[in-house]
Amino acid sequence: MNKLAIALLVLTFASCGKNKEVNVVKEQAQLTKEETTQAKKILFVLTSHSELGDTGVKTGFWVEEFATPYYALKDKGFEITLASPKGGQPPIDPKSELPDFQTSSTKRFDTDKETKELLTNTLKLADVSQADYDAVFYPGGHGPLWDLSEDKNSIALIEEFYKNNKPVAAVCHAPAVFKNTKNADGTPLVKGKKVTGFTNTEEAAVALTKVVPFLVEDMLVENGGIYSKGADWSPYAVEDGLLITGQNPASAELVAELLVKKLK
Predict the structure, then answer these.
(1) Residue closest to 248 by CA, chosen among 120, 68, 77, 110
(2) 142 is catalytic
(3) Is 16 a catalytic residue?
(4) Of 202, 203, 239, 253, which residue is the catalytic one?
């Protein structure tokens, strides 16, 4: 073999080695990207309120609105932490456990001992910091109308998430949490932003218009939100910057999907 052939052979092997190294670097970068996505942390904040006004009827969080986004996010590798104003076990709205309101996610939850155990040990909201999470999600149920809409820790937490450019998501009655949240200039956080939430007609359909402390739709409009809605009980969600809101229980999956896209 002459010197020219030997030189070409050496260059070929060297080139192959470099290409291999480049491919390894690309694979490692891709793996790092995937691991980063999987490592992102989401805080779920649930209500601690269990009384439906003075009716003597129990309320709390709606199972579908917790279970559907919880599993949608968990199955994609996100790390989820649960919190509530009082800590410990948040109350479940007993109606949400009735056969008529069961879905694949609620059925999964029924047999999920690990998640049920986590629910018994939710963190106290006062002990939570936005710095530890990449986003916050509020499941609904009527409970938030009474406690989370007025809870100072929740209000401050949402404002901190928003100020630090982190998504805030809420579904059904949970957009009630925006009742008292403000921008840095003191204006309502939802002012001028596209939002949705449980409709007045949906509240009337469950005969609770005169029981709830306020109507979610009316509050969002009064706070200057650009409110829109789909057909009653149909999936509908909107995104405006860092805010992601869903109309009703059927919208929980859409809200989770929008949040996943936002966090990529």
Answers:
(1) 68
(2) no
(3) no
(4) 203
Residue found under tokens 């009064």: 222
Is 123 part of a structural domain of the chain? yes
Q: How many structural domains is the chain composed of?
A: 1
Contact (CB, 8 A) for 143 and 150 = no
- Residue 261 to residue 264: CA distance in whole angstroms: 5
pLDDT at 12 over 70: no
Catalytic site residue 21? no
249, part of any domain: yes
Claim: this prediction has a pTM higher than 0.90:
no
Of the candidates 173, 217, 239, 253, the residue annotated as catalytic is 173
- With 0-12 / 13-18 / 19 or more C-beta atoms within 10 angstroms meaning exposed / middle / buried, residue 252 is buried
pLDDT at 19: 52
- pLDDT tens by residue, 151-183: 999 999 999 999 999 999 999 999 999 999 999
Domain of residue 133: give its range.
Answer: 40-263
Residue 27 confidence class, pLDDT cut points 50, 70, 90: low
Reading the block at residue 161, the tokens are 């998430």
Spot the catalytic one: 49, 172, 202, 217: 172
What tokens appear for 77 in the block? 């590798």
- 153: domain CATH number is 3.40.50.880
Of 94, 92, 161, the C-alpha closest to 133 is: 161
> Which H or E element spans position 158?
helix 152-163
Determine the average pLDDT of the residues in 141-147. 98
If you ran DSSP here, which 8-state letter would residue 88 be given? Answer: B
* Residue 183 DSSP SS3: coil
Q: How confident is the model at residue 137 (pLDDT cuts 50, 70, 90)?
A: very high
